Description:
Blueprint: E1 3-13, E2 21-26, E3 49-51, H1 52-60, E4 71-75, H2 83-95, E5 100-104, H3 115-124, E6 128-132, H4 138-145, H5 150-162, E7 166-172, H6 180-191, E8 196-203, H7 209-215, H8 229-239
Parallel strand pairs: 2-4, 4-5, 5-6, 6-7, 7-8
Antiparallel strand pairs: 1-2, 1-3
Helix pairs in contact: 1-2, 2-3, 6-8
The site of iron/sulfur cluster has 11 residues, from loops.
Amino acid sequence: MLKGAIHSIETFGSVDGPGVRFLIFLKGCNMRCRYCHNVDTWDGKSEDMRSVEELLDMAERYRAYWGKDGGITVSGGEALLQIDFLLELFKEAKKRGMNTCLDTSAQPYTTEEPFYSKFVELMDYTDTVLLDLKHIDSEEHKKLTGHPNENILECARYLSERNIPVWIRHVLVPGVTDDDVYLKQLRAFIDTLQNVDRVEVLPYHTFGEYKWEELGIPYTLKGVEPPTEERVKNAKTILGCK
Ligand code: SF4
C-alpha cells in the first residue's frame, strides 16, 4: 500500500483553505525559498509514513468541527512531489464526502508525462488550490527560490481553464517581493485568470529562522525585518485583496 512521507499534522487549521481544516504537511520540496519557515520539510525522507486510510480515519475524528466549508488541506513542503499518494488520498477523501484543498507552490508542474495526466486527474478531486506565487518575474523568482516560474504560471493558467477555485498567496518580503512594479505585474497576471476566489498577502516573518541555524544552512535574509503595516496595506491594495 502506498504511504505518504509526513512532516506533521495539525488538527484545527483555520487559515489554510475554507472553514476549519485538518492539515497534512508532506515532506519534500525542490524549492529553496530564502524565507522558507519549514526548511525541515525539504528532505523528502520521513520516519512518519502513513497510509491514506490512517490519515483519513484520523481526519474523520474532527469532522464535526468542519461545518459546511471545512475539510482537509494537504500542504508541505511541496505536496505535488508525492502526487501518486496525493491522488489516492483525495480520491478516497471525495468518496468519504470530504472537502479537499491543495496548498502548493506548483514547482513540480509540467505538461510532461507521467506527471501531467496525474495532475489532470488530481484536479477532478480537488475543491480548492492555494497557489503560492512567490515572484511574478522569472529571474527574480529564480533568485528567491532557485527555480524559474514559467511552469508555475502555466499551472495557474491551467487551473483557470479548468475553473478550479484558487486562492493566490504572496509572501511579502521587504526589498525582495514588495516592489510596486512587480506587485502590479502580479495583479495584471491575476487579472488574466478566471478562477481566483481570493488574493492573500502573507507578511514575511522570522519564526522559522532558528530551523536554518539548527540545520546549519546559511540564512540569507538575516537582518530583514517583517514588512511594516503600511507596506502590507500597500501590497493588499495593489493586489486587490478584500
Ligand atoms: S515552496 Fe514552501 S516549503 Fe518549499 S522552500 Fe518554498 S516556502 Fe519552503
